[in-house]
Structure formats: C-alpha cells, structure tokens
Design goal:
185 residues; alpha/beta; Rossmann fold; five-stranded parallel beta sheet; 5 strands; globular; binds nicotinamide-adenine-dinucleotide
Length: 185
C-alpha cells in the first residue's frame, strides 16, 4: 500500500494554474509547489503574476513561472498554453481558477441588475467558461501524453443556488447574473 507521502508526492509534475495571482490560485500554487510540482501561473494581472511567481520561487527556486495572459483573448490563451507546455516539456494538470468574480471591476458587471450589460456577460463567459474549453483543447494531447492528465475547473455554490444577498449588505458586492450562469456551466 502507498504511504500518504507517496500519494501526495508531485515531484516532476507540471500544473498550469490560471488565476494564479488571485487568492485561491495562489494558495493552490503554494500547496502544489510544496508537494513538488512546477507551476506556471497564468493571470491577466501581469505585475501580480510576476510578483506571485517570485513568491513561489522562494518556496522552491525556479518552480514558479509567470505566464501573463488575458483569457478574454482566445489566440493569446492558446499561445500561453502552448508556451507553458513547451517550457516545461509537457503538462500533467490544468487548473482553471481565473474568473470574473463578484468583486471584478468591469463596466456592466457587479452592478444592480438593471445596469448589468450583455457586453460584461459575454466577457465573463469568455473568461469563466469558454477559455476552459479552449485551454483543454490546446492541452489535451500533452495531458493525455502524461498518462495521468487532470483538469480541475472551478465552479461556485452560486452556479447551483441563488445567493442570500443580505449576507453581502454593506460590502458593495452585487450579484452578477452572468456569474451564476457561467459558473453553473
Ligand atoms: N472566493 C470565494 O469565496 C469563491 C467561492 C466560490 C468559487 N470561487 C471561485 O474560485 C476561483 C478563484 O476565486 P478568488 O476568490 O481567488 O478570486 P480572485 O479574484 O482573487 O482571483 C481571480 C484571478 O483571476 C484573474 N483573472 C480575471 N480575469 C482574467 C482574465 N481575463 N485572464 C486571466 N486572468 C484573469 C484575476 O486577475 C485574479 O488574479 C474563481 O473561479 C471563483 O469563481 C471563489
């Protein structure tokens, strides 16, 4: 029987984490690096992406890679996945954590329902949902070649049930309809 150490060991594994500059993406990256994996963190916030990669490299030198990319852009997204695979010589895990969330500052997004726009809805779908489809298509061969490829996509409770908005009183947060729909997808 395998020991817990063997089951958790990610030595030599390569995991691409989107939204790696965000709260949960960073926590994921730190955990996976500690277990031995190399992590390219993909994020549209280029400065935060670089800063987080440097932070990860303090845990294990050269295991964190900054991969600035805007998932709104399909061709840039395909290019970033290809670059990551090329740089690491393959891919074992794809984790899609980046998202338009409740605090995302974008016109027509986290605003009262009457002010939410189709433009913001479309962009959120591109980032939260369509980019996952694009990245899996681009990474499929490398994941398959690894012999143990994993894909982890982030949903949300709010993709299943509506929020109780009284919980968010005084936070300034609004419930973007596109969040629930894209996370449910
Ligand atoms: N925090 C929560 O309570 C919670 C609850 C349920 C689900 N989730 C899900 O967990 C994931 C992470 O949430 P979080 O709280 O860490 O969010 P976060 O806002 O801290 O991180 C999201 C990251 O995605 C990046 N991003 C946004 N648009 C992008 C784009 N176009 N291209 C590339 N990167 C982009 C942002 O720059 C940010 O670094 C999300 O998918 C969210 O839906 C979070």
């Amino acid at each position: 029987m395998k020991s817990l150490n063997q089951l958790m060991n990610l030595d030599g594994r390569r995991a691409l984490v989107t939204g790696g500059a965000g709260h949960i993406g960073l926590a994921i990256s730190e955990s996976l690096i500690e277990l031995g994996a190399t992590i390219p963190i993909l994020d549209s916030n280029a400065a935060a992406c670089q800063e987080r990669a440097e932070k990860l490299n303090k845990i294990r030198a050269n295991f964190g890679i900054a991969l600035p990319c805007d998932l709104e852009d399909e061709s840039a997204t395909r290019g970033a996945v290809v670059r990551a695979i090329h740089q690491m010589g393959g891919l074992d895990v794809l984790i899609h954590c980046a998202a338009y969330v409740g605090t995302t500052q974008a016109p027509g997004w986290a605003v009262p329902f009457d002010d939410q726009t189709v433009g913001a809805w479309d962009v959120a779908f591109q980032v939260n949902l369509t980019s996952a489809f694009v990245m899996v298509k681009e990474a499929r061969k490398a994941l398959s070649d690894s012999g143990h490829g994993s894909v982890i996509l982030f949903g949300s409770t709010y993709g299943l049930v509506g929020p109780v908005m009284s919980l968010y009183e005084d936070t300034g947060m609004e419930n973007a309809a596109g969040y629930a729909a894209s996370k449910g997808g």
